[in-house]
């Protein structure tokens, strides 16, 4: 997916509609800096506003991801290509998030260990000792909660029984037994509980 081409296309269509970056930003409830980043190919619009952006610019989503107005004859072929590109981008982002999860987990664990170690072995008043331990636990709890959110939403879980791939609820991820990235979960399709492993691709061959 050519982000520079897409950015130029957004810019072209915006100008055809006689809209400034600020005016388009206001319609989409984003900053004009965000519009500038799109048009310069630095990043893509968030998925939640793509439909509204296309409506304002009077283009299709297929046009947007192609970076040009797509001929109806080529529409189906181009759509398939764009969908594959979107899936690839999502997999890359999910992979980065899962790496970030490991980093955050290690970082907050080190912070907690240091705070508890210092509180245990340095001569300080009891109130300061307690505050130091609390100071270690606060980022640890927040960090672990964020890691669990990443674990829930990045990629998919694959049912061991029916091979269905799905995103479980945060609650089920929180309470599920797990070994590394494999969790004992109830499949949303077949309803069986089994050890479901984390995968990046969401294609379901059996659907």
Overview of the structural elements:
With 207 residues, the chain is an alpha+beta fold. The chain has 3 domains: 3-70, lambda repressor-like DNA-binding domains (434 Repressor (Amino-terminal Domain), Orthogonal Bundle); 85-152; 155-199, no CATH class. Helices cover 62% and strands 9% of the residues. It is built from 8 helices and 5 strands; from the N terminus they run H-H-H-H-H-H-H-E-E-H-E-E-E. It has helices at 3-16, 21-28, 32-39, 47-57, 61-66, 75-121, 126-153, 170-175; strands at 156-158, 165-166, 178-179, 182-186, 193-199. A 5-stranded antiparallel β-sheet has the order 2-1-5-4-3, with no helix packed on it. A hairpin with a 2-residue loop joins strand 3 and strand 4. Helix 2 (21-28) crosses helix 3 (32-39) and helix 6 (75-121) packs antiparallel against helix 7. The protein is flat, with a radius of gyration of 23 Å. The protein starts with a helix and ends in an 8-residue tail after the last strand.
| Shape verdict | flat
Q: What's the number of domains?
A: 3
Radius of gyration: 23 Å
Number of helices: 8
Written as H for each helix and E for each strand, in order along the chain, the element string is HHHHHHHEEHEEE
Span of the ends, CA to CA: 27 Å
Report strand %: 5-15%
Low-confidence stretches: none
Biggest pleated sheet? 5 strands, antiparallel
Q: What's the rounded overall pLDDT mean?
A: 88
Spatial arrangement of strands, main beta sheet = 2-1-5-4-3
CATH superfamily of the largest domain: lambda repressor-like DNA-binding domains
Helix content percent band: 55-70%
What is the correct CATH architecture of the largest domain? Orthogonal Bundle
**Global structural class:** alpha+beta
Please count the beta strands (DSSP E, at least 2 residues each). 5
Supply the CATH class of the largest domain.
Mainly Alpha
| Topology-level CATH name of the largest domain | 434 Repressor (Amino-terminal Domain)
């Amino acid at each position: 997916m050519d982000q520079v081409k897409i950015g130029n296309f957004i810019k072209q269509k915006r100008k055809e509609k006689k809209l400034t970056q600020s005016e388009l930003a206001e319609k989409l409830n984003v900053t004009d800096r965000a519009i500038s980043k799109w048009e310069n190919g630095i990043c893509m619009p968030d998925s939640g506003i793509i439909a509204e952006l296309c409506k304002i610019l009077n283009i299709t989503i297929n046009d947007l991801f192609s970076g040009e107005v797509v001929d109806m004859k080529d529409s189906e072929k181009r759509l398939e290509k764009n969908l594959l590109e979107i899936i690839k981008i999502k997999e890359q982002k999910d992979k980065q998030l899962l790496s970030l999860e490991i980093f955050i987990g290690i970082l907050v664990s080190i912070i907690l260990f240091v705070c508890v170690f210092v509180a245990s072995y340095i001569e300080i008043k009891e109130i300061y000792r307690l505050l130091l331990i609390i100071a270690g636990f606060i980022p640890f709890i927040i960090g672990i909660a964020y890691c669990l959110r990443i674990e829930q939403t990045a990629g998919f879980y694959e049912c061991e029984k029916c091979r269905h791939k799905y995103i479980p609820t945060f609650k089920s991820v929180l309470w599920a037994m797990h070994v590394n990235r494999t969790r004992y979960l109830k499949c949303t399709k077949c309803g069986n509980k089994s050890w479901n492993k984390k995968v990046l691709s969401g294609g379901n061959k059996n659907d």
